[in-house]
Amino acid sequence: MRKIRTTWPGLAALGLLVAANATAQQPAPPIQPAKAAVDHEALVAELKGSFVERGLAKLDRIDQSPMQRACSIAEAGGEMPAETAMKITQDAAANVKPPADGNYIGDWRQGEKVAQNGRGLQFSDTAKTINGGNCYACHQMTKSEISYGNIGPSLYQYGKLRGNGQDMVSYTWAKIYDSHATMPCSNMPRFGAAGILTEQQLKDVMALLLDPQSAVNDDQAKP
Asked: Can you tell me the distance from the alpha carbon of 215 to that of 51, in angstroms, rounded to the nearest whole number?
């Protein structure tokens, strides 16, 4: 009976053959379709045609500023030029209005109420409805509140971790007043620039974030 001799070169060749066969049998990766160009004006017209005005919700909310239009086009697949992104942040920063009295910090307990309140500007609201910030929909803020979203970064211990020096105060005010001042096309509402919150409400939210004694920065604080 003849013995079959197995050599290392033979094993190597067999391994390559098996690997090649397995590779050949694997399905090719799917081809990713290119993003189709979007007719922006047609899209806006379609949106306006599909909505009806009701209560406080008017169709003029669909009208876009040049900044919003640039962001929508970029989101739909186009690329935003670097100079456009820079202009958005520069224009937004230039329109940030500081508090009339120069005091940025209000009452953090009132700020907690603003953060918890998700009412305002809805079709079911009235002109007398006090707008809220609905901050917890996107951010963790206090240890005691366990119902929060994570679209935005955690703001828990915001002031404790970052301090409350003037630079941080100015940055935080600008971020809340008009989020595009620090990040073009941010998903965060422009609470001051869009008139969603009053100046006093903005101050109160600032206190919630930066006051060392607030529930954001002190777990023992009671809202």
From this structure: 41
